[in-house]
Amino acid sequence: MGIDPHLEHNLESFFTMDYPMFELLFCIEDTVDPAIETVQSLMSKYPQVDASLYMGGCKVGVNPKINNMQPGYAAAKYDLIMISDSGIKMRNDTLFDMVNNMTEKYALVHQMPFTCDREGFAATFEKVC
């Protein structure tokens, strides 16, 4: 278990999004994950942002990622939920863009992640796909 070299920069971009009302729900499976310190540091740096940290997950099915996110999902305050990964950097207008593209006909909006800073095979594969 290691930390992505851009973890802090990526996560900080979530804290600086420009949207009237949102919350950040960080779900980390392992209580000894070094990313916990990064999340806690950012929560201290941006106390005006409604952010919570959930650890341990909850078994609701066979998908470990869904199990990991379940406590955050159960605690969510708002009807609209955006799920993202720590390897994604958010633009400050991402939430506005996604919500503005929702209509009565389209209730789900997916944006392709743009990867630019990561190195290695997985990052190269993400750039191609």
Automatic annotation (TrEMBL):
First-tier enzyme category under EC: transferase
Pathway listed: Sphingolipid metabolism; Lipid metabolism; sphingolipid metabolism
Keywords for the protein's UniProt record, in alphabetical order: Glycosyltransferase, Membrane, Transferase, Transmembrane, Transmembrane helix
Main location as per UniProt: membrane
SUPFAM superfamilies reported in the protein's UniProt record: Nucleotide-diphospho-sugar transferases
Subcellular location: Membrane
GO terms, molecular function: ceramide glucosyltransferase activity
Transmembrane segments: none
EC number(s) from the headed UniProt entry: 2.4.1.80
Keyword ATP-binding in annotation: no
Family indicated by similarity: Belongs to the glycosyltransferase 2 family.
Protein's name according to its UniProt entry: ceramide glucosyltransferase
